[in-house]
Amino acid sequence: FRQYNFIRDSWFEFRSSLYGGKMTRQQILSLCRLYIPEAPSGVVSDANAYIILNNAALEFVDKADALPTYTDFDITASTQRYALSTVCSTNLKMRKEGIWLYDASITTWKQLDSITGAEMNKRYSTWLNDAVATPQRAWIEGDFIYIHPKGDSTSDDIRIYHYAKSTDVDTDGEYFFSGSTTQYSWLAPYEETLIEYYKARVYIDILGGNKIQKGQYAEQKFYAKCLEAKNKLQYRSDLVPFHKVKIPSGLQPNRNMFQV
User: What confidence tens digit (pLDDT) does each residue in 156-196 have?
Assistant: First the structure.
């Protein structure tokens, strides 16, 4: 069994090299069909296969913290609550750097205090009715981001440091993760990892029976690869988290942002 896995994994790497690291959605699907001949299109349609593979990409970027980014949006005067699905539609989960405010009156970025809604009710019981002013703190509940006090200037901005969701592929020639004809170079080595997730779902959820063990092995391999990627990507200089680099002039971090 171990010899089989070695041969199979060696073929996996060789197959990837044939495409020069360029694995579009149809090439990934072709490999899925090759590796699981007992699940042809009559068992798992192309449309359903792409649903599984898009879910695999989303799961990978979540577990590997693979798409660090930030999103800016304009403050609306006297508005305290903003829908994340509107102002930060790519948000998957927050980064340690948190939420920042650009105060246009002094042309400076400042990190907002991080707090919870429950703590707001304890510390600032009148927060819902407080007058507009320069925001000092922020928190997220479900699909909403709250700032306090309400902003008093439409020229101020909020910046959310977060990890982005992958974008689904829906057309031939597109790459997983980006969902476009642009390949994310730092994720190219992990494109075929999505096949392990695909195998897991097909073997466990669709074929079942004596195939479940093979699915469990594929699932373990997938999550091990996610962890490996996370450990590697955190040291890439082009993806280095904000808290590990020198803070540019004009940015003033609040070192107590996680103390409530």
Answer: 999 999 999 999 999 999 999 999 999 999 999 999 999 99
3-state secondary structure of 232: helix
Ramachandran angles phi, psi of 241, nearest 5°: -60, 150
Cis peptide before 149 (omega within 30 of 0): yes
- For residue 209, give every residue at least 6 positions away whose Cβ sits within 8 Å of its Cβ, in sequence order, or none: none
Give the model's pLDDT for residue 80: 95
Query: Which of the residue ranges 44-58, 71-85, 99-113, 229-243 would you say has the lowest mean pLDDT?
Result: 229-243
What are the contacts of 87-92 at 24+ separation with CB within 8 A?
87/145, 87/158, 87/160, 88/145, 88/160, 88/162, 90/162, 90/164, 90/165, 91/160, 91/162, 91/163, 91/164, 91/165, 92/58, 92/61, 92/62, 92/67, 92/162, 92/163, 92/164, 92/165
pTM, rounded to two decimals: 0.83
User: Which structure tokens are listed for 23?
Assistant: 């694995």
What interhelical angle do 212-233 and 46-64 show, nearest 10?
A: 40
